[in-house]
Amino acid sequence: MIELVARRFRMLGEPQRLRILRALEHGRRTVGEIVELLQGNQPNISKHLLALHAAGLVARRREGNSIYYSIADPVIFRLCELVCRSASQDAREQLESLTQPEAPTTRGKR
Amino acid sequence: MIELVARRFRMLGEPQRLRILRALEHGRRTVGEIVELLQGNQPNISKHLLALHAAGLVARRREGNSIYYSIADPVIFRLCELVCRSASQDAREQLESLTQPEAPTTRGKR
DNA sequence: ACACTGTATCACCGCATGGTCATATAGTCA
DNA sequence: TGACTATATGACCATGCGGTGATACAGTGT
Hints:
2 copies of one chain form a homodimer. By secondary structure, chain A is of the alpha+beta class. A 3-stranded antiparallel β-sheet of chain A has the order 1-3-2. Chain A starts with a helix and ends in an 11-residue tail after the last helix. In chain A, helix 3 packs across helix 4. Chain A has 5 helices and 3 strands; from the N terminus they run H-H-E-H-H-E-E-H. Chain A has helices at residues 2-11, 15-23, 31-38, 42-54, 75-99; strands spanning 29-30, 58-63, 66-71. At the A-B interface, helix 1, helix 2 and helix 5 of A face helix 1, helix 2 and helix 5 of B. Chain B binds a DNA duplex through helix 4.
């Protein structure tokens, strides 16, 4: 169980994959489109897409000669939003504690 | 930005770290307590705790000779719950599609 | 100062994984 | 069938990272 959850998180733990998911946020895209969009090289993108597909995060559909990928599990974006918010807040606090070393607040001591 | 988010996800992408976080879910614990609880070896646990601390996910407080770690960012558990739900649902669907290869439903084709 | 406990650090190994190039495969069209 | 496009696969390298044992460091009590 824990292993499964960890695998999912690991899937989201690569910047390139996050970029790919973001590229799919507003609709399906073919491999080629994503490659061009991210300025990546084709085998790399393809590999990541296959991994995401194996993890059940994206769906895959052949159409003619191309293959369209799309988000299969929208929960992804909620996850990213949560992490994003929390991370940016964290960064802000760290900045504060750097600029004003004296901070007798309750929630410091990180 | 994306790099930061990815780093957070990667932090959650190791089973051992998830176990550590779970051990902290209901309150702070010392390193030794966690080591004993997870049957791990001390340097390993210590390393993970330091990493989690550097990532801002756990807080750290010295008390006498021991060091207490605690959850710094409860959003972690919301993340885990979301992933957990989605993962288990996914697993269920995969099972279904294995047992009944004929599934003319709308949401198949994964 | 010494012994003792708890935690962190160092050095090392092994492995999983991302990036990349070359190449294979599937599909389309003539 | 053959040429062409789109995607996947294989082989390879480099590297990041987790696990582990030995050891250093910090705090406490005597």
